[in-house]
Write a structure and sequence with these properties.
- By secondary structure, the protein is α/β, with parallel strands linked by helices.
- It folds into three domains: 1-18 and 37-107, no CATH class; 109-206, Beta-Lactamase (2-Layer Sandwich); 211-463, P-loop containing nucleotide triphosphate hydrolases (Rossmann fold, 3-Layer(aba) Sandwich), CATH 3.40.50.300.
- It is built from 15 helices and 16 strands.
- β14 and β15 (407-416) form a beta hairpin.
- α12 packs across α13.
- The protein is globular and about 80 Å long.
- Residues 6-33 have low confidence and may be disordered.
């Protein structure tokens, strides 16, 4: 049966309004809603073309000997042949659109592919099969892209998680995974998700951001970058704190780039996303339990195992449980120069979170012993925030100085200047400014061959 006959049988709509691909700001009139979304005018066409393509290519779609590029070429060639040999009621532009969308469905992730290709989009949020939002420059927008139905969305989620050897179903309704480019993926499916499957993708740049990029974005200043470079090279233990989406992992990547190329680096992550450029890097990833609830490998297990791998540096993508105890012990037993991230609201809260996570190890350690471990292990806290204007800024560079009684003493070295206000576009004018206090670790840096000029810590008034 010809393609045109199949279309006639299915009786697609003769005409339908074209759907604009321009994003709309969240909260404004006209934002796509489930009850007001236009049907895809090419849904039937795409379904029929998809079926014809499967018939044309058959087993070649699953030939393991074909690399991704060869498969893409064959799919696009077959698509053009299918569309050209039939008298389909489509314009040239419509044929091109249908071909691209069918190719995206077979080779990629369906309606998400154009969003994944857009370099300006940093996050994709699927709130059900017919409601998708994206983040651009720190702000959330609704887009008219949509999946055909819940089953279509579930197939896409299964395709993503299966690629990294994970699963998601009623027995395990939440999963963390990653795309081939390292983008972080989280999926939640019914019965946990009440209104349909939920998918969140935090995209990573094709080229990792460099320290020059972060300076250009205003995340840090050139002076702070030089200080952090010296701290990393002098093997200070650094914890990066901040909220969700504040840019902690990006800053961790940049700080890791300061590690000398001749050192052996072990990275430990829940879902691999770090992008280190050094050659001597050993990457490990946690593993969830299998169907029999066996075979789990937790972050804590990997931290303990890394100590037997002769690491010069241990980098933990994020500490979120009792692995904090093992991380602190590693920092205190000769594995200095370690770097990790923690979810927190402030430098002080970073230490409180670490203390809470150490207590999760259930070893009944006294509070003072835990705090002494933290005061001895952690040298520097870098705190990062996502501000109201959507920018991600380092707001605190804080030194951990030691203990005074039962309290860990902290000293802010650099603080973000919120008093500078905002400009006419709502962007913060402030930058990181020195508090004028000289950190104690400068002597340690000098002993290890890293000299930071005293002028770097002059306060604004002293600089004048």
């Amino acid at each position: 049966m010809s393609l045109s006959d199949r279309l006639a049988q299915r009786q697609p709509p003769a005409s339908a309004p074209r759907v604009s691909l321009a994003p709309r700001v969240m909260g404004t009139p006209g934002l796509p809603r489930r009850h007001a979304r236009h049907a895809d005018p090419f849904a039937e066409v795409k379904r029929v073309v998809h079926e014809a393509l499967l018939e044309a290519l058959g087993p070649r779609l699953y030939d393991a000997r074909l690399d991704q590029r060869e498969l893409e070429v064959q799919v696009m060639q077959a698509l053009q042949e299918v569309l050209q040999r039939e008298d389909t009621p489509l314009t040239v532009a419509d044929k091109s659109r249908v071909a691209q969308e069918v190719a995206d469905e077979i080779l990629g992730h369906g309606p998400l592919e154009p969003l994944l290709r857009d370099p300006e989009i940093s996050e994709i949020m699927v709130n059900g099969h017919d409601q998708i939002y994206v983040e651009r420059t720190g702000r959330i927008y609704g887009v008219p892209a949509a999946f055909t139905n819940e089953a279509h969305l579930r197939r896409t989620i299964d395709k993503i998680v299966a690629r990294v050897g994970r699963r998601v179903d009623e027995a395990s309704p939440m999963v963390d995974a990653r795309l081939p480019d390292g983008s972080r993926v989280n999926a939640v499916v019914p019965p946990i998700a009440l209104d349909g499957s939920l998918l969140t993708i935090r995209k990573f740049a094709a080229e990792p951001f460099t320290v020059d990029d972060l300076i250009a974005f205003g995340t840090m200043t050139a002076g702070v970058a030089e200080l952090l470079r010296a701290c990393v090279r002098a093997r200070l233990n650094i914890v990066i704190g901040g909220g969700t989406g504040s840019g902690k992992t990006t800053s961790l990547n940049v700080l890791s780039s300061f590690i000398p190329a001749d050192e052996r680096i072990v990275t430990i992550e829940d879902a691999a996303e770090l992008q280190l450029r050094q050659e001597h890097v050993l990457r490990m990833e946690a593993r969830p339990p299998n169907l029999e609830n066996r075979g789990e490998v937790a972050i804590r297990d990997l931290v303990r195992n890394s100590l037997r791998m002769r690491p010069d540096r241990i980098i933990v993508g994020e500490v979120r449980d009792a692995a904090a105890l093992d991380m602190l012990q590693a920092m205190n037993t000769g594995h200095d120069g370690s770097i990790s991230t923690v979810h927190s609201n402030s430098p002080r809260d970073t230490l409180a979170r670490l203390e809470t996570m150490v207590l999760m190890a259930d070893l009944h350690l006294p509070q003072r012993a835990i705090r002494e471990q933290m005061a001895s292990a952690v040298n520097l806290i870098v705190h990062q925030s996502r501000l109201k204007d959507g920018s991600r800024r380092i707001t605190h560079i804080t030194e951990v100085q030691g203990m005074e009684g039962e309290v860990i003493t902290l000293q802010d070295i650099f603080l973000f200047d919120f008093h500078a206000g905002v400009d006419e576009t709502g962007q913060h004018r402030g930058v990181l400014r020195s508090t004028g206090l000289r950190p104690r670790f400068l002597d340690t840096l000098a002993d290890r061959g890293e000299v930071v000029p005293a002028a770097a810590f002059a306060s604004q008034g002293q600089q004048r």
